[in-house]
Amino acid sequence: MNPTEKALWFVESHLPDAISLDDVAASSGVSRFHVTRAFSAATGRSVMGYMRARRLSEAARKLAGGASDILAVALDAGYGSHEAFTRAFRDQFGTTPELVRAGGSTQNLDLVEPILMDSSLLTALEPPLFETSRAFLIAGLGERYSCETSAGIPMLWQRFGPYIGNIPGEVPGVAYGVCTNADDAGDLPKDFCRVRVPAQKYAVFAHREHISTIRRTVNTIWNRWLPASGHEIADAPDFERYGPEFDPRSGNGGLEIWVPIKG
């Protein structure tokens, strides 16, 4: 079983329990950082977001089935009060526990069902190159995305397009997509933030297909190659590198995926 399959099994088998991301990582035999990236690459969801949605979905079924005590359902779902449960339930489904119980149906609710892993989604992968990067600075537009809102990333690239060729100190023909936290500073456009990438060893993978299929490649890296490689993930930014051959208008041309490893 790969880290995501182990994480899914652990979450589903401990759904009523008070478990943390550390517990999920330990059950998967990898770090918090690794299980977070592997899970999101494979499922498109965060680990804890998936667990929360699954708990609320099972709670909704109990309510629709006529559960007499909403507080008991809330406690079973991991919430310490009726108010906290109602708030989370409304955020997830756009309605209240009382209305679902009164209606006796989950028909209009977007329930989250257990994810069944399909290994056929994993693609054949070219062996990586290993590079030790120098420390460098990346500047650009930054947004906070969860796994569930990551569909907004292409729009961020569209917003960035007009800046290309007009940024002080820009390296022509190269762009990056970075997953990390950022800090704001420097003589940059007011909408920009910057990320300092330290000197770090990376496994560099080629993604030669259309940009829309990148998730399959990332999924393969984190859930098949990395567990079998003997390498350990480093707590450093991972990023995509887009060279001059990449055409942002068509999504063709390929790119590189840089994964930080220890050593």
Provide a descriptive summary of the structure in words.
By secondary structure, this protein is an alpha+beta fold. It has 9 helices and 7 strands; from the N terminus they run H-H-H-H-H-H-H-E-E-H-E-E-E-H-E-E. It has helices spanning 3-13, 21-28, 32-43, 47-64, 70-76, 82-93, 97-103, 153-160, 214-229, and strands spanning 129-133, 136-141, 175-179, 192-197, 200-207, 238-242, 255-260. It has a 5-stranded antiparallel sheet with strand order 1-5-7-6-3, covered by helices on one side. The chain has a two-stranded antiparallel ribbon with strand order 2-4. The chain is globular. The two termini are 25 Å apart. The model is unreliable at 182-186 (pLDDT under 50).
The SSE string, one letter per element, is HHHHHHHEEHEEEHEE
Q: Give the overall silhouette.
A: globular
Strand content: 15-25%
Main β-sheet: number of strands, strand sense, barrel status? 5 strands, antiparallel
Radius of gyration: 21 Å
* Strand line-up in the sheet with most strands: 1-5-7-6-3
Report how far apart the termini are.
Answer: 25 Å
Please state the average pLDDT score.
87
Helix content: 25-40%
Count of helix runs: 9
What's the β-strand tally? 7
Structural class, by secondary structure, is alpha+beta
| Low-pLDDT ranges | 182-186
